[in-house]
Input
Amino acid sequence: MSASSRALTPRQRQADALLAVVVFVAGVISAALSAISEIYGDDQAPLWQALIYLAVVSAPLAFRRVWPAPVAILVSVAYFVSVTLHLPEIYAGNIAVFIALYTVGAWMANRRAAMIVRLAIIVGMFAWLLITMYRDAIDTAREEDVIAGAMSPYLAFMLLNLLINVLYFAGAYFFGEHAWRSAMQRQALEQRTADLEREREVTAAQAVALERVRIARELHDVVAHHVSVMGVQAGAARMVIDQDPQKSKELLGGIETSAREAIGELRHLLETLRSSDTEADDAPSTVGLSDLPELAAASSAAGLPTAFTTVGEERPVPSVVQVSLYRIAQESLTNARRHAGPAATADVRLRYTEREVELEIVNTGRRVLTPRPGLGQLGMRERALASGGVIESAPRERGGWRVRVQVPLTAPALTGAIS
Output
């Protein structure tokens, strides 16, 4: 099982195989030149041993990202044996050890194990280096019949060699860690990008659903109100057409007016749907709180005597809230005409306070024992909540129904509202 947390692509496997071949070829050239130059003098091992060593140190690099820790241990041990036996090749081995240590830091998923493997190799190499330096220093001092003191040229050369090794292993460790952190940051960024894409899709789906609800609510309010008014007026006209033709004409005129208003509101709704999002947001509402007196008058003309009263000093109310309150009043009066009975009356009160606007619609009529929930009641609650307000809708003990909605005029009430 691979120690890496990232799956290798075919191109990465090919790159590792090519790297192993390049290290082997470069090592052969280095070994040949080292053998000719007799880098180890009389203690130098035969060239064929160096070729075997190069095969051992380079071949594992083809699997460095599949098994980082075993490859690093094998390459380090091979390098240690090579230098100990004075094989005529050191440069390709140095490169192989650096690559192996870097790969452990960059590709091992178990970070604790990666740290232990690298520290063990580095500590082992430095322990072997110090022992070798001490032994060579004693041998050199004995041969030259001098003491390898603090100012000895040989000791200075060994300290320089030690410094080079410190930089060598520190570089392998640092670059491996840096590569791992960069890969994790890229992976986290890709994950966040995927999450954002999924959230965008969910948000788009929610926006479509909310738009469908808004359209359904608008259609219900427009159609239910105007069709209800036209139905009541048509019934009244039919009953009095023989006895009072003039009254019938007035009722038929009311039906015509309601039909035109319904067509106008439906046309506005369609124009809003066809416009862009910005145009839809900036499009003026067709109705508002200033239209409540006309709504009360239309309700009275439709057979439900309705009074309208404004209480308090008028304050600026956002258009979205105005539309919501108007539609709530419209739906309440429509329900009263349907269910309250022929002798019912209604009262619409609009109250302004310092912090909120309140709309109350009260009608008399039949007592309601078991309220029946419907789309109208649901639409009113959705509009109130969308405007940041609260709504009470319940039957009265003396008969009839009361609807009261309160909407704060502060900023939280105006965010996220749906007209």
